Please model this.
Amino acid sequence: MSYWTDKTLPFLDSFYNYRSIRIFSLVEKYLVIKRKISFSDKADILLTKLIIREKELFMEDAIKELFGMLSKYEIFVNMLPGSMFCVILNRFTVFSIPYDSIIEFLILSYLFGLLIGRIGSLIVEKIFSSIGSLSVKRAPYGDYLKVENDAKIKTLNEKNTLYRTMIAMFLVLFIIFFSEAFFQSYIYEYMNVIKLVVVLLVLCLFISSYYKQTNYIRKNVQHLLERDL
Model:
């Protein structure tokens, strides 16, 4: 039995663990220098490298194909908030979103981004439209339809949609952080208070940005309509 028979197999189960791959390369170089590996050992190492490289190429092609299926708008509005949500949830809460590869992470990010976007569209937007004098003042829908193909209006609207999605994301995160601290009876611990305050501050920042961007879109719609008269 060759020296690497039992050493190679664990790496075959860690195609996405690049730290293990780097350690593997260092160990290989050390053994080559010390001349402690035979021809069969070198063959095992080469085979492992080829399999790892094939996996890397497959991942690259799959990621390119996945991004090719999505528009820039979907990546900007869905993928970005979804990936942020997954990372924050995994790092700062007891909850975790399991994934075994970058492909799975991207798919989960897109799905969570879609879900958060629907919360923003169905709940957040309705709240901001029904709070009396503080309601967001949008351009009349008929006026917006007349200028919706304008490049500047499209860009402004995409940013506004992103702000709304971010509001929904940080609102959901605040509920998760608060529920986690409350049910585990350590809501007044220093780090939990810090997390809640930071989320609230960022939430307020995006709410302010959403108001400002919506008003800016309304003024631009009015300006374009007056220009075309």
